[in-house]
Every structure is written in C-alpha cells, then in structure tokens.
From TrEMBL:
Pfam families reported for this sequence: MoCF_biosynth, MoeA_C, MoeA_N
Family the UniProt entry places it in: Belongs to the MoeA family.
Classification via CDD domains: MoeA
Catalysed reactions listed for this entry: adenylyl-molybdopterin + molybdate = Mo-molybdopterin + AMP + H(+)
Segments of skewed composition (Basic and acidic residues): 28-44, 57-74
Function: Catalyzes the insertion of molybdate into adenylated molybdopterin with the concomitant release of AMP.
Protein name: Molybdopterin molybdenumtransferase
Pathway(s): Cofactor biosynthesis; molybdopterin biosynthesis
SMART domains: MoCF_biosynth (SM00852)
Enzyme Commission code(s) on record: 2.10.1.1
MoaB/Mog domain sequence ranges: 237-373
Length: 461
C-alpha cells in the first residue's frame, strides 16, 4: 500500500528522518561494515544493539538478504525455471528481444554489383561517349558497356556488365562534344559494391542471444527476413493492494492517490515485460488469493502488504498457495520489506513495498534481474562515478539514492525518502551507497534507469 508510514517501510532515508536509534547508530558508527580496503575501525557491537525499523517482522533483520545476493537470487530463480519456447515474430514486433536462433544470411549482400555513388558507369580508359538513357535503382539489368562508353547511374543501381569503375558526379565533366572526362585519377573498381561484399548466402550475421536493436532490424530486413526467432517477452501482471487508494482527484478523508498503478506498468515494460493486466485488489485476502492462483503471468508484482500488519496479506496468501519464499526482506533502504517467491514452476511473484520509492528499489533489486534473465538479455556492465557530494548511509544496509549525471560526477538528489517520488522523477540513475555512506568524490556504483539510455517503453538492458 502506498500510504506513507502505514506499512512495513522504514522512515525516510534522510538523517533527520531516521528513528532515534538509527540516527544514534549513524553518529556512533559512521562505517557500518568494513570498507573495501579492508579497514574496520568500528567499535564492537552486540546483536541486541541493532535497531529494528518500525513494522519489521520478527527476526527480519537476521533473515533479510544482502542486496547483491538478492539480485543474484532473482537472476538464479529465472534461470532455474523451465526453458521458455522461442517464438517467431514480425520484424516490427522484435525490438528489444533477444535472438533465439542465429541470424543467417538468406542471400548475398549485396545480391548484385551495385553503384556506391551517383555518377557514371564507365568502361575502359576515357574520355567516354555517354549514352542517352541512364540506369536507376530498382530497374532490370542494363545493357553491357563497351570500351570508351559511359552511362549515367544512380546510387544502388545495378552495374552494367564490363563496367570498369563508377566516376562520381563531382569528379567528371562533359566537353562541348558531349564526351565525359575525369578530373581525378580513377582506380579500377572504384565506387562499385561487388556482389557478396558484406556477406554470402548462409553466412552467420549475428549469434543467438543478440539483442534486437534498430540496426539489427535493418540488417535482418536487408538479409531478406520478414520474421525473426526470439525469446518472448516475459508476461507480467500487477496487483495493486490497498483500500486507501484513489485513482483520480485530490487526496481527501484519509485517502491518497495511487502512485504505483500508473507507474509500475510502463516501468515493467521498460524493463522488457509484456504487462498483461493491472488489477486493483484492495485489502482483500480472498481476492488476492484468487488473483494469484488464477494468474498465468511469468511474473506477478504486488504493491504493499509484505509486512505483518492486520491487512498485510501477501505472506499468508503465499503460505496458502504453497509458494517457495526465495527472498524475504533485503538489506537495502528504501525497500527492505520486498520479497521474491516461486508460486509455480513457471511463475514468480515479486512483492514490492507500498511506499513509491521503496517500490522502485524493489523493481530494480528483484524484478529487473528476473525479467532480464527470463528475456535472455545480458547483464549490463557495472560502472561507477565519483559523487559530487557525500551521501549519508544506513549503518547496516545498502542504500539506493537517486542521482543526476553531470559530466563525470553523480549528483545526489534530495527528496529521497521511501514515500517520495520527486527525486527519482528527476534522476538519471540510482547510486548504490554501501553501509556507512559514501564520501564526496568516492567512486560509487550506479544503476541506470531504463529510459536514461533506451527510451520510454523500450528495454535494451
């Protein structure tokens, strides 16, 4: 559910929004875990001193999965399921999918000798007598040339037999007698694309697993394809929980606008999913059970209800359907109450926290690697940038902080509490801040937002 503070989400991540115990822990222990250089100047602590966020399930801190391991678990869960059957789709529907069969050339490219330039096809040494009729692209094989003869030719047109070279328009001149002269030295075969220059029939152009980009679509079309064999898009279904949610108008009388219903479907599409349904369930355990058991999606995404409050029904429903709980809480802020379960052999459920930025954290922690692996997309290469400002960390958990990229630095954004979307709406990426925080100028791993590099609705990650 999306009401700030009504679910198991921790308080806002800014220091002044932390609870008292966590704020004190930050002061006492600026480095919550050993740093990457192996140093560890932390005072000894006992488990009893660890703060517990409001709404955490009993022993949740001990069961929660480290952030990196949670992402690995999501990818591993997708790999362990039954192999998904490849499908043949028209080129127009293939963008962003991965090839499930090699793209082999169906013809020579080019399939005949063609002109690479506008100009004249010439035979033998000049000067040349020019024919009256020219040669255009898309026309039948032109008549053979004889030595001393030339013909006007367009880019892409078939080369007449016995052509020596193509003389570019800007490199030729016509004299008063109508003869063509070259103004530059000309080489044999100049500006002719010979048949099979790019590939021969049967050559492998691209291997299995290649991501279909606009350039791949162009190559496939040039090679004679109308359809390609690809790994199908994973199908996702979104279940929006919460009786307090409005779908229009201003918040009133304890009701709030639903931010996740409008946000999650396009975000999932940007991650490569085909969103087949968005259902509003409310705080109804029977309706949630019915929706989960009847769904045939590859991935079910729920919003809120992942804690142990009186209307938090996700865990009980998962128990009732016999789901295997793979990740139950993640050591990340915001978003630690997220979960991942296997509900059927061919189906998983990602339970997102109800707070909006916490839900984004859950998407990028659990849904992104699972969907990416189901779609056979390669994992993006990790990269880092130095922070322009220091970022306060959580004493024990990884923290995901919205940033904008300015030159060779990442600039942290404010309004990054778990219930806030103002920061992420302006962000280019999320900085992965280790426990204890990050100093100004410290190299920090970044997670790109899907539209920062690929465009809304298209996933190349």
């Amino acid at each position: 559910m999306t009401a700030p503070g009504t679910r198991a989400e921790a308080p806002a991540e800014d220091t002044d929004d932390l609870d008292v115990e966590e704020a004190l822990a930050l002061v006492r222990e600026p480095h919550g875990e050993p740093r990457s250089d192996g140093t560890d100047d932390r005072p000894a602590r006992t488990p009893a001193a660890d703060p517990q966020a409001p709404g955490e399930r009993p022993a949740e801190r001990h069961r929660a999965t480290p952030w990196t391991r949670a992402r690995e678990a999501a990818a591993r869960a997708a790999r362990s399921r039954t192999r998904r059957a490849p499908v043949s789709v028209p080129l127009a529907d293939a963008l962003g999918l991965a090839l499930a069969a090699p793209l082999d050339a169906l013809t020579d490219l080019p399939s005949f000798d063609t002109s690479a330039m506008d100009g004249w096809a010439v035979a033998g040494p000049g000067p040349w007598q020019v024919r009256e009729e020219g040669v255009l692209a898309g026309h039948a094989q032109p008549e053979r040339l004889t030595d001393g003869e030339a013909v006007r030719i367009a880019t892409g047109a078939r080369i007449p037999a016995d052509t020596t070279a193509v003389l570019r328009t800007e490199h030729g001149r016509i004299d008063a007698q109508g003869r063509l002269h070259t103004t530059r030295e000309m080489l044999h075969g100049q500006d002719i694309r010979p048949r099979g220059q790019e590939c021969r029939n049967g050559d492998q152009l691209l291997p299995v697993g290649t991501l279909v980009t606009p350039a791949v679509l162009g190559l496939a079309a040039a090679a004679g394809y109308d359809t390609v064999t690809v790994v199908p898009r994973p199908r996702a279904e979104v279940l929006v929980l919460g009786d307090e949610l409005l779908t229009e108008g201003l918040p009133h009388d304890g009701l709030i606008r639903d931010a996740l219903g409008p946000m999650l479907p396009p975000w999932l599409r940007a991650l490569g999913a085909d969103v087949i349904a968005v259902r509003r369930i409310g705080d109804d355990a029977r309706a949630l059970h019915k929706a989960v058991t009847r769904s045939d999606a590859d991935l079910i995404v729920t919003t809120g209800g992942t804690a142990s409050g009186p209307v938090d029904h996700v865990h009980p429903v998962l128990d009732r359907v016999g789901a295997e709980l793979l990740v139950d809480g993640v050591k990340v802020r915001p978003g630690h109450p997220m979960l991942l379960a296997r509900t059927k052999d061919h189906q998983h459920l990602v339970g997102l926290p109800g707070n909006p930025l916490a839900a984004v954290s859950g998407l990028l922690t659990l849904a992104e690697p699972l969907l990416r692996t189901l779609a056979a997309h390669p994992a993006p290469e990790p990269y880092t940038l130095p922070l322009r400002e220091p970022v306060q960390g959580h004493p024990h958990d990884t923290r995901l902080v919205p940033v904008v990229l300015r030159g060779d630095h990442a600039v942290p954004l404010h309004y990054n509490g778990p219930a806030m979307l103002r920061g992420i709406a302006a962000a280019d990426a999320l900085a992965v801040v280790p426990p204890g925080g990050a100093r100004q100028g410290e190299e920090t791993e970044l997670l790109d937002l899907p539209w920062a590099t690929a465009g809304i609705g298209v996933c190349f990650t």
